[in-house]
Amino acid sequence: MGLTVHGLRPALTLLLLGLCVHASAGEEYAGDADDAALSRAGAFHQGAGPLRVRNVNPIVQLYGMPRSVGAEVLRPGTTEVTFNLEIANNFQSDDRLDTFVFLDGETYVASHRIRGAFNDRWEWGFEIPYIAHNGGELDNLVDEFHELFGLSDGGRSLAPRGRLDYLVRADGVVYADFSESVHSLGDVRGFVGYQVFKQPRQKLA
Asked: Taking the C-alpha atoms of 11, 127, 196 and 49 in order, what is their torsion angle to the nearest 10 degrees?
């Protein structure tokens, strides 16, 4: 089972699906009609947090950077289940001291995440990612974007399109060197959240 995308249109379709697919489930509010309407409105407002993206650069992923989910923990009795698909088109090189890094390819991260509440101040969650490194299916689109707006492309237009070439070398030791598509289950992440304070116009968690 691999996450391989052939062609620009399927890649964009998957990207849109990753942005749009978002399912939430929770216990129904037990109260009168007005209170129930207020509860549903509050739940909608609570779900409208920051855009849940993160840097999926192959090197940055090693540090397990968390995904921002907002400044408010979930309400007690509420469970949130989400699916995210993130695509990063990589082209960069860095050579300093005894370290050389070259990244030319594309990274796909498909994540299933479940999040729930212990009480009104604490929440818990788990995320299971599936990661794939492929050739740059979006190279054409990125190159045309740079050309359209006259932006510097960092030399990417001189490189072959659709290539996968990742190399990381430090102190004479090669830590990563591959040019064929790879995919596997990523590190399963667990997390907890705490509501530091919550006011009508200010929140921190």
From this structure: 20
Residue 12 CB burial class (10 angstroms; 0-12, 13-18, ≥19): middle
pTM confidence score: 0.70
Q: What is the pLDDT of residues 10-52, one digit of tens each?
A: 444 444 444 444 333 333 333 343 433 334 444 444 445 677 7
Q: What is the DSSP letter of 50?
A: S
Residue type (1 letter), 202: Q
189 Cβ partners below 8 Å, 6+ apart? 64, 66, 126, 127, 129
Radius of gyration of the chain (CA): 21
For the chain, strand residue ranges (E) read: 22-26, 78-96, 99-117, 122-134, 165-170, 173-178, 182-185, 189-194, 197-198, 203-204
66-92 burial string, b = 16+ CB within 10 Å, else e?
Answer: ebebebbbbbeebebebebbbbbbbbe
Q: What is the dihedral of CA 73, 76, 78, 82, to 10 degrees?
A: 30
CA dihedral sign, ordered 28, 32, 35, 41? positive
The string of pLDDT tens digits covering residues 161-200 is: 899 999 999 998 998 898 899 999 999 999 999 999 888 8
Q: Give the position of tokens 């490189």.
A: 159
